[in-house]
Amino acid sequence: MQGKETIKSVVFGDDSSLTESASSRLPLSQQHLALELTDAKAKIKRLRQELEEKSEQLLDCRQDLDNVEAELKRLQQENMQLLTDARAARMYRDELDAMKERAIRADKLEGEVARYRDKLHNMNFYKVKLEELKEDNQVLMESKAMLEEELQSVKARSDKLHQLEKHNLLLESKLHDMEEERTVDRRRIEELLERNVILELSQKRSMEESQRLGWELELAKNPQQNSELKSLGQEVTEKTCSRLLKLEKENQRLLKTLKELQGTSHSLDEFISESKHIEENGMMDIIDSKIQKSTPAFANMHNDRIIIKTSNQSLDTEHLHASLESTNGNLHCLEVELHELETENQRPQVNIYQNQGQVDIVNQGLVHENGQLEQDKSCLVKENRRLRQQVKIQEASLDSSNLKLVVLEKENRALVKKINFLSESCAKNKEIEMENQELIQQTGVDKRMMMTLREELLDQRLKLQQKESDLEKLAYELERMRLNQETQMGDHEAGDQRYCKQLESELESSLMKSLKIKKERMAALEARLQESAKINQQLRQDLKTVKQNYEALLQRDEEEKAGQCSPTEWTWHRESQEATWALLKLKDRLIEVERNVEKSTVTSQNSSLMTHNAQLQRKWQSSEAEREGAIREREDLRTVNELLLRDHERLSVLHERQAAEMEVLSHRYSTMENSHRTLEIEHRSLEDRYNKLLQQRAQLEGLERALREEQQKMQNEICTSRSTTAECQRLRDEKDWLNQTYQKLLAENEELQVEHKSIKSQLNSCKLEQTQLESELSKLKQQNQQLEITCIKLTNQCELLTQLKANLEEENRHLLDQIQSLMLQNRTLLDQTMESKDLFHVEQRQYIRAPSASSGEFSISLENEAWSSDSSPLPDPLSSSRQRFSDSPSPARPNHEDLRQGYSSSGSGVRRTSSGKSAGERSAQKLDKASIGLYKTQSVQSTESESKPALETQGKSSSVSGCLNCFATPMRSPKTGQALSTLPRASCVISTSEGNSRRASVHSTMSVKSTGAVSSKNGTEPQPDPSDEVLKESPDLEEEDHKPEQLFDSPFTIDSVFTNTIFSE
After folding, report:
1. For burial by CB atoms within 10 Å, which of 258, 394, 505, 764 has the most?
2. Are 517 and 726 in contact (CB under 8 A)?
3. Please, which residues bridge with residue 486 across strands?
4. SS3 of residue 982 by DSSP
5. pLDDT tens digit string along 864-908?
């Protein structure tokens, strides 16, 4: 530009000089052109200035453009940086989310670790429980060993039983053989009988022949007889020889049978030794007893048979010897006879008779032997029957033993199954314990690995951040190198593309490997979950079976206890019912006090039952509370299971989220590929500039080497981190599985604890109930004893009371008889008193009507009264009262005033008689009351005895004398000529109504007495008379009523009535 401007200035400068020279040279016409030229020059200058300005503006615009281009480049670079920052920020956000999730997981893991630590503290308790379970398992194993030993012994016994059955079958076969031998013996006996018959026939024939020979001897007494006799001796010897041969054969046969029987006895001895050996080895007692019972029977049977056969053989031999001896004797006799016949031919008949006697003796011996054989036959038949019965009994016992063995085998199989199940459960428990210990160890190792992995992750994050910063710097340097080396990129494009492709392939392979690892981990987790679910189901089924077995065992124990306790409880219930019936029967006879005592006992029992009921209700409430606690625990377990399911769902959601993130990453990878393509295009554009960077290639190669080494290190670290993450994930999975198994074990252990506690509580409650029932039983027994004692006492008291009642009834009967007799006497006396009173009233009226009567008449009347008193049947008290009455007036004759006084006194006497009349009625009523109330106490008698002197102190001499006169007057008719002395007494004039009323009262007393006697006989208690209540309420009336009792004085008082009785005391 500076060159151009210099050129223009030179050109324009030459033109101006030329114009100036031309203007000076040219004329004025040309001056106008010069002006125009000057104007043009000015315009040109102006245009130049404008051009300069515009050039300057262009330069400024170019500078502005450069600045804008630089700003654009800078903005592009900033945009690229922002894009990389956004990408990094997105990556960091994703990493932050992942880290947050990891932190949340770490917090959860820390919480789980804390919980596991807390649970580790409880591991001691669980270890103790596991030791207890181990001890229980040991006990079960010991019981299993015992049962196996018992099974082996039972199997051995069963084998021995089979052997014994086989031996029994052999014995049965031997018995069958013996029976066959017996049949053979019978046949032989029959044959012997047939032979005996044949021998008898032969004896008869021989007798006939001997008779014939005797006749021939008698007929022929010539030398021919010797030859004939010799022929007879020869025949006899031949027959005896044949018999001897037969008997020897039979002896040989019997000896053979004896040897066979000895062999059978040896077999029996062997069998006995085997049985002893079985006993020593410990066979069952039942089988031993049966064998011991059977072996002596068989031995006795065989011995009896042997003895019988030997006896038969000995008898046969004895018979044979006897027959031989007899034959020898016969031979000698025959020889002697022959000699005698030779010497004496006159005695053939005697010898024949002797022979007949001997034959008869032989026949008798044979008959006797036949009878003995028949007896032996019957004994053998009986023994055969007995043996058959024993065989049948043994068969039945063997059948029962076989059934028992079948039942035992079934029970043994069941026990074997139970033992196998228990052994499996023990093995499972041991495996679970081992797994638990391994899991505990693995949890410790996992914790350590987690700590190390966290530290390594932090280091790797720092390294990744540093590497990312280094990569960003390198990318920035590459972009700068692309701008500087656009011209030098032709040769190195292939190497860079390969390098980029390698990086891309490595990224893709790393992503695919991570996806595969995640998928494999998820599949392994699902498989482990399924296996854990299966194991959980198996464990639950095992628990159910164990619970069912435990419940079945408990039910068996309860049934056995109920079977043991049911008869005692039934007897106790029956005895209690009998005692209650006896008590109910006695309650009808007991007194109200005993009823109150029974009521108190019943109330005490009711209170005890109420307390027992309250205790049972409390126990029921406690059991319900425990059941509710178990239900709550079950709900808690359900909630835990639901939480685990939720965690599983969360894990599935995380898996889906990771899948979505994987899809996002794949999308990002596609975007990265697009960006890579754009980068490849830019790389192509930068190839031109790449040539400029050849100098820095060595540095870049060194840097690339360093980067490669760092990448290799990063890859190695990534591989190690992947392996550590895989191990961490595996450990987490194992930890989760261990946690699940541990929780299951805890739940099962808690359930077992609850069941153990419930069983212990039930045991304690049962023991308490047993002690309470025993105490109640003892109390009831004591009460029953006391009640029995009281019942015995009451029965004795009742018997005494019945005896006393009978005695009292008899005494009451005697008393009633006495009272009736006394009442009759009283009645007669009352009639006499009434008549005397009537006469007395009549005399008083006559005295009132004849006031002019003299004192002599009064003395006459007194004399009459004295005469009547001499003839009266009353006792001395009445005569003494009459004497007192007679001594009261003076012996001199009174004057007129005395007569007036006498009249007044007579009037008062009349008045007193009226009062005496009422007193007499009262005394009659009192007697009635006394007759009704015979069972009054002596207090009443004392009051009556105290009332007598009070009555005697009162001044009623006239009425008393009148009454005494009434008693003293005899019942005689008046005579003519005795006007004053034989005046009619008051009994002829007194009104009959009073007498009738008195008689009615007496009759009423008699009727009341009779009804009282009847009521006492009927056993009813006498009710108190209202008259007694009236007497108790009014003692004054009683005193007035007792006043006329002085009339009857001592012989007619209540005390006199009850003398010589029980009530006299």
Report:
1. 394
2. yes
3. 689
4. coil
5. 444 444 444 333 434 433 444 334 433 334 344 443 443 444 444
* Per-residue model confidence as pLDDT tens digits over 213-258: 777 777 766 544 444 444 555 666 666 666 666 766 776 777 777 6
- The DSSP H or E segment spanning 1030 is helix 1026-1033
DSSP single-letter state for residue 889: S
Amino acid identity, position 93: R
Residues 1030, 921, single domain; the answer is yes
DSSP 27: -
User: How many domains does the chain contain in total?
Assistant: 3
Instruction: Say how many residues make up the chain.
Output: 1065
* H or E element, residue 531: helix 493-587
3-state secondary structure of 421: helix
The helix/strand/coil state of 486 is: strand
- Residue 400 CA to residue 606 CA, distance in Å, equals 53
- The answer as to whether 659 is a domain residue is no
**What whole-number distance in Å separates Cα of residue 689 and Cα of residue 682?**
11
**174 contact partners, CB below 8 Å, separation of at least 6:** 264, 267
C-alpha radius of gyration, the chain, whole number: 78
- How many other C-beta atoms can be found within 10 angstroms of the C-beta atom of residue 1048? 20
Domain boundary among 357, 390, 423: 390
In a domain, 806, yes or no: no
3-class secondary structure per residue, 748-788: HHHHHHHHHHHHHHHHHHHHHHHHHHHHHHHHHHHHHHHHH
CA-CA distance, 769 to 781, in Å (whole number)? 18
Q: How many Å apart are CA 343 and CA 226, to the nearest integer?
A: 11
Give the model confidence (pLDDT) of 597-630 as tens digits: 656 666 666 676 777 777 777 877 777 787 788 7
* Short-list 641, 960, 1017, CA closest to 816: 1017
Residue 1045, classified by CB atoms within 10 Å of its CB into exposed (0-12), middle (13-18) or buried (19+), is buried
- Which residue is associated with the tokens 């009173």? 837
Phi, psi of 799 (to 5 degrees): -65, -40
Residue 352 structural domain? 156-390
- Token representation of residue 404: 């028992």
Strand partners, 112: none
- Alpha carbons within 13 angstroms on the beta-carbon side of residue 351 total 24
Cβ neighbours of residue 724 under 8 Å, at least 6 residues apart? 449, 453, 456
> What pLDDT, on the 0 to 100 scale, is given for residue 990?
41
Backbone torsions φ then ψ of 486, nearest 5 degrees: -70, -25
Give the C-alpha separation, 391 to 395, whole Å: 6
Residue 589 phi, psi (nearest 5): -100, -15
User: Domain check: are 1021 and 881 in the same one?
Assistant: yes
362 touches 203 (CB < 8 A): yes
Average pLDDT, the chain: 67
Distance, in Å, from the CA atom of 626 to the CA atom of 501, rounded to the nearest integer, reads: 72
Residue 646 counted as domain residue:
no
Q: Which residues pair with 188 in a beta bridge?
A: none
CA distance 186 to 858: 146
**CA 806 to each of CA 534, 798, 1016: distance values in angstroms, whole numbers, following the listed order:** 94, 12, 11
